[in-house]
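Figure 2 data, in text form.
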Amino acid sequence: MIKNTAALLLGVCIFVSMPACKQKHAHAGDIVFYNPIEYNDFVVDHQNAIIRHMVNLTQAFDNGTEQEIRMQYKSLKSRSDSSLHMIKQLSDYEGDSVLKIAAVDLLKFYNQVFHEQYKDMIEIFLKGDAASDAEIETLNQHVTYIRNKEEALNKKLNAAQANFAKKFQFEFDDQTPEIP
């Protein structure tokens, strides 16, 4: 009887402790992250995808037609929408949500800017020399607002990534992507 009770208790202890031994992970929709580096890389990949689209739009401004500029702008908005959607789906990572929050804040800002200020900025840019002084002033105000807000949000994201890397013991290369 004691032998059976001990075996039963051992079996219960093993069963109860199994979830504690299970490898921890996080997810974004159907995507599963098995370590903190994958989780961080997911954030970085989405930020970089948006930046690549920003670069494409800048190149279209430099030597593209109005049609190419509008096509790149549409592509940028679409990429921003999808990246923001994916980042919003991130779960926390082992109870840590600071990185997710910082990433969502930056991508929400980008999304708002791409749908609002960029629209105005493109229309002013396409007017060329026909743009009024008031429109040029509006363009400059948009640029200043975007630069200042983006700088603050990038610093917040970089700090969150550095703290996340320290907490989960991996090396983080603090290099903010170049934004046109």
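Caption note: The CA atoms of residues 113 and 146 lie 8 Å apart.
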